[in-house]
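Subject: design request, 252 residues
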């Protein structure tokens, strides 16, 4: 999971090490819902621990994802420095129009829906988040591997999960280009999008769409960050933030 030409610059490639056997097993058994999962990319190495809450990585505000939700409105997801908890996060377009506003949570996460359905927005339209005098980088709707939806989801009890119901966040992603792809799912453990532990791989459907049941972090971590890339490392998703607490969908 990395851009072409980048692997040689990273110690041990892009796989920074081991999540701990229990966590890795849990992540692998999140069971990606697309057909024929191939887990050959899952690795374990000694003594590495994913660092929850690594964003915003030197920036005070990060706009992590922008996409159209089920009712056609633009949905925004981001992370701010926890010092901004309780402050307003405002989203603007290139014309400096206020598009959406919400409150930053105690964990630094903010989600918002656009105030209206604007059909004038295209995949090239860019947005910026501003919180407490700080602002994010511009983020456009179109992404090489983009989010399309997220919803809370429960895996039914099985012998494999010791008869327990497992809470997950189901994320739908779509690869630009509209054809079948092999995707690699990884846990981001550093500020770089290439600082990732690869967990599993799965195929999209013929339109490049895949539903992923991502595990939630333990209660002592505010969130985990996942990345999804094509097998050739050419297309990589934005940060996919999964919170430890149950999540409502983007329309909620």
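Subject: RE: design request

Done. Sequence follows.
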């Amino acid at each position: 999971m990395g851009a072409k030409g980048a692997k040689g610059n990273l110690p041990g490639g892009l796989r920074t090490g081991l999540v701990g056997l229990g966590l890795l097993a849990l992540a692998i058994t999140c069971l990606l819902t697309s057909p024929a999962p191939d887990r050959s990319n899952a690795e374990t190495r000694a003594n590495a621990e994913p660092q929850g809450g690594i964003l915003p990585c030197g920036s005070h505000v990060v706009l992590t994802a922008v996409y159209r939700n089920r009712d056609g409105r633009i949905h925004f997801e981001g992370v701010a420095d926890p010092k901004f908890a309780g402050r307003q996060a405002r989203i603007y377009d290139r014309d400096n129009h206020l598009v959406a506003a919400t409150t930053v949570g105690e964990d630094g996460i903010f989600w918002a829906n656009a105030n209206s359905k604007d059909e004038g927005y295209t995949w090239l339209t860019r947005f910026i988040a501003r919180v407490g005098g700080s602002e994010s980088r511009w983020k456009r709707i179109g992404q090489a591997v983009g989010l399309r939806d997220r919803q809370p989801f429960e895996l039914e009890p099985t012998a494999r999960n010791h008869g327990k119901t497992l809470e997950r966040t189901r994320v739908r992603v779509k690869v630009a280009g509209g054809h079948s792809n092999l995707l690699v799912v990884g846990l981001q453990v550093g500020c770089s999008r290439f600082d990732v532990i690869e967990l599993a791989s799965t195929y999209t459907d013929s339109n490049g769409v895949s539903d992923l049941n991502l595990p939630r972090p333990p209660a002592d971590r505010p969130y985990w960050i996942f990345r999804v890339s094509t097998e050739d490392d050419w297309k990589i998703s934005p940060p996919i933030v999964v919170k430890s607490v149950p999540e409502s969908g983007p329309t909620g």
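Residues 7-51+143-243 form a domain with the Immunoglobulin-like fold (CATH 2.60.40).
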